[in-house]
Amino acid sequence: MRIIKATLEHLDILCPLFIKYREFYGEAPFPDSSRDFLEKRLRRDESVIYLALANDDEGRLLGFCQLYPSYSSLSLKRVWILNDIYVAEDARRQLVADHLMKQAKKMAKETHAVRLRVSTSSNNDVAQKVYESIGFKEDTQFKNYVLPINSD
Q: Which Gene3D superfamilies match (predicted)?
């Protein structure tokens, strides 16, 4: 497999897998809105998306990850948030996620980031094991909270 950085030209192959990712987490597919969302992130350089492509004639998409930049006021450095990672069902158990995360880690080092952050469902044991296998540590120093911002 090969890992490449996504561009606007990859939207047609990325969108179907992005929609499956959203559905995996119980969200409605919204194909047009999903494509628009990804296009805006790429066009505005608001995220970095890596694609894992098969080494076959079709170059089919095996998985993707999307990272968002953030910053640490305490360390005065960049932080990357590994916000989305998904592997196609027929490509699982082929180390696709490992390759994507290794590329994310490489990019974080190249941009002089102080750390890479990731969150996952508390019951997603498979993802937790994968993250730990490449060096992620569970954050025991900080407890995270979420404040939903509703439209009402």
A: 3.40.630.30
Distances (CA, A) of 25 to 12, 86, 128, 129: 21, 11, 16, 19
Residue carrying the six token digits 């002089």: 112
- How confident is the model over 103-152, as pLDDT tens digits? 999 999 999 999 999 988 888 888 888 889 888 998 888 888 888 888 65
- Ramachandran category for residue 76: left, alpha or beta (phi over 0 → left; psi -120 to 50 → alpha): left
- Domains of the chain (ranges; CATH) run 2-133 (3.40.630.30)
Q: How many angstroms separate the first and last alpha carbons of the chain? A: 46
Instruction: Classify 75 as helix, strand or coil.
Output: coil
| Token pair listed for 8 | 């606007």
* Beta carbons within 10 angstroms of residue 21's beta carbon: 19
